[in-house]
């Protein structure tokens, strides 16, 4: 008689083979994934809400989990993401200003020049400033690049400092909510909107420059975002109102350039955040994103159309062939 140690009879036959890890066949294991049931060694298992899952199931679960997004569809990032686009725009504006200041030999009068009262042509102390400033006569003669280039020029250091401070304050949060590509699209549509409005409504001899149109567009964008998120838009609306009052009362400020940028930026943001998303399945989110981009493109085409109509009118008025 034998005693196997547990009080029962000795087992007969060959014991069943021990399971081996699905990813490491050379490793025997008694563990398994609580999701797929495959045997797995301790190195291939990860803690899960219920039991342990193999690394393959963990990866599949991450792919299947919808990524958290903002109301504009931008992916939400952990930590403190850097607003690269805002900083890049500020850097570009500063670089353009420094170039014009060096050419003009002045930080405060980099946009100084002389206008011929008979022809309306202007000669600026900075050749770059003269090449890019929004001049309706030059745009009518085919220099369309001025409608964008003028948005990176500023009349003096104070003009630059105020605009860049506001862009730094408002741009960072707006970029985080819209996402980098949408933020840049809204910025440049606003810039074009400001140029279009200035061309359409300012006097023929007005020379316009500055990022104010684009920055007003970012103000409008932030107001729309706050309303969409059901938060108080009072502070940003107050800032917009104060700036409109300043534009009306201080000579030399382009009210129409500001208003055009404000409307274009608010409209571009609205088509992004109010695009229908259904139940927010991946397909519906992708469709909403496409609709948003299509809306921005439509606004851009509309703005360019306004510029084109103004150019045609100026060419007829000035008998330019």
Give an overview of the whole structure.
It is a single chain. This protein has 321 residues and is mainly α. The protein folds into two domains: 18-60, no CATH class; 84-318, Up-down Bundle (Rhomboid-like fold). It contains eleven helices and four strands, in the order ββααββααααααααα. The strands form two sheets. Strands 1-2 form a two-stranded antiparallel sheet. The chain has a two-stranded antiparallel sheet with strand order 3-4. α7 packs across α8 (212-228), α7 (180-201) packs parallel to α11 (282-318) and α8 (212-228) runs antiparallel to α9 (234-249). The model is unreliable at 1-10 (pLDDT under 50). Keywords: Hydrolase, Membrane, Protease, Transmembrane, Transmembrane helix.
List the helices and strands and how they pair.
Blueprint: E1 45-47, E2 52-54, H1 55-64, H2 84-104, E3 113-115, E4 122-124, H3 127-132, H4 136-140, H5 146-149, H6 157-178, H7 180-201, H8 212-228, H9 234-249, H10 255-273, H11 282-318
Antiparallel strand pairs: 1-2, 3-4
Helix pairs in contact: 2-6, 6-7, 6-8, 7-8, 7-10, 7-11, 8-9, 8-10, 10-11
The CATH architecture category of the largest domain equals: Up-down Bundle
Oligomer classification: single chain
The CATH class of the largest domain, by name, is Mainly Alpha
Helix-and-strand structural type: mainly alpha
Strand content of the residues, in percent? under 5%
Major sheet characteristics: 2 strands, antiparallel
Low-confidence stretches: 1-10
Distance between the termini: 119 Å
Q: Roughly what is the average pLDDT, rounded to an integer?
A: 85
Give the number of helices.
11
Helix content: 55-70%
**Gyration radius over CA:** 31 Å
CATH H level of the largest domain: which superfamily? Rhomboid-like
As for the number of domains, it is: 2
Estimate the global geometry from the Cα principal axes.
elongated
| Element order: H for helix, E for strand | EEHHEEHHHHHHHHH
* Strand count: 4
GO molecular function: serine-type endopeptidase activity
Domain Peptidase S54 rhomboid: 142-273
Organism: Rhodococcus spongiicola
GO cellular component, one term: membrane
């Amino acid at each position: 008689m034998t005693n196997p140690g547990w009080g029962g009879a000795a087992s007969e036959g060959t014991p069943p083979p021990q399971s081996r890890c699905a990813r490491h066949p050379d490793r025997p294991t008694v563990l398994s994934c609580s999701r797929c049931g495959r045997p797995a060694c301790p190195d291939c298992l990860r803690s899960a809400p219920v039991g342990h899952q193999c690394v393959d199931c963990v990866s599949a679960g991450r792919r299947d989990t919808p990524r958290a997004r903002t109301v504009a569809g931008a992916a939400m990032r952990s930590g403190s993401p850097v607003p690269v686009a805002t900083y890049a725009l500020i850097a570009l504006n500063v670089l353009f200003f420094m170039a014009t200041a060096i050419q003009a030999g002045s930080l405060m009068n980099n946009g100084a020049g002389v206008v011929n009262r008979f022809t309306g042509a202007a000669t600026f102390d900075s050749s770059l400033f003269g090449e890019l400033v929004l001049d309706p006569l030059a745009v009518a003669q085919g220099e369309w690049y001025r409608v964008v280039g003028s948005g990176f020029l500023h009349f003096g250091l104070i003009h630059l400092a105020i605009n860049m401070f506001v862009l730094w304050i408002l741009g960072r949060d707006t970029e985080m909510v819209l996402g980098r590509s949408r933020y840049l699209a809204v910025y440049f549509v606003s810039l074009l909107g400001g140029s279009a409005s200035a061309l359409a409504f300012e006097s023929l001899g007005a020379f316009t420059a500055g990022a104010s149109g684009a920055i007003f567009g970012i103000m409008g964008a932030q107001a729309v975002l706050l309303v969409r998120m059901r938060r108080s838009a009072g502070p940003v609306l107050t800032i917009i109102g104060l700036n409109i009052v300043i534009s009306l009362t201080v000579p030399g400020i382009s009210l129409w350039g500001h208003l055009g940028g404000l409307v274009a930026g608010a409209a571009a943001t609205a088509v992004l955040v109010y695009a229908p998303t259904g139940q927010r399945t991946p397909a519906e989110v992708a469709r909403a994103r496409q609709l948003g981009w299509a809306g921005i493109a439509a606004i851009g085409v509309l703005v360019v159309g306004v510029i084109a109509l103004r150019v045609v009118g100026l060419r007829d008025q000035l008998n330019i062939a």
